[in-house]
Amino acid sequence: DQQVKQNSPSLSVQEGRISILNCDYTNSMFDYFLWYKKYPAEGPTFLISISSIKDKNEDGRFTVFLNKSAKHLSLHIVPSQPGDSAVYFCAATSPTGNQFYFGTGTSLTVIP
Amino acid sequence: NAGVTQTPKFQVLKTGQSMTLQCAQDMNHEYMSWYRQDPGMGLRLIHYSVGAGITDQGEVPNGYNVSRSTTEDFPLRLLSAAPSQTSVYFCASSYGAGRMNTEAFFGQGTRLTVV
Predict the structure, then answer these.
(1) Tell me: the pLDDT tens digits for B75-89?
(2) What phi-psi label fits residue A75: left (phi over 0), alpha (psi between -120 and 50 degrees) or beta?
């Protein structure tokens, strides 16, 4: 059973606009969440993370929001750039576990 | 900095053949793991290791074997390849899982085709 879900397989956004990627999780024990970016023929690379003690974490153009009551997190990219076109995975882990759980990914296309 | 190195990058196997996917990291990470990526399925954990001599199964372990004799290396063995094992395989390492402020570093992947 998928514990981390990304329900939008793809997203297209105009350059300069905001991209919002969503992620839902089911396990209330998850307390640390990560976003990864993946280009074709490359391995995923870490983008940004957030712990459950926060509801927002910002790094340049990237902001992750966490809504624990809704078990939902989102990644905002502002402004979006063509180089942001990639597949984005969210992941989660818990203090009692030994695994990262990944979502199925969202393919973002930023149109120049 | 090499990070996580996977070899080979591409491989074609015949059904029933065996092979080993190599993974090495130079970051002195305790935790290493293998994932497979399939269309619409995301990254699924095959096996992981929390340190030398310790391995455990992930979500999709059947048909794969691992060992961890050193901190640096974590090879993945396909015992008898099947077409269902056609996938892209990623090795990852981190200081740990289940702990905050750690992230996994991934290799570039091995694209495996079983015919």
Answers:
(1) 999 999 999 999 999
(2) beta
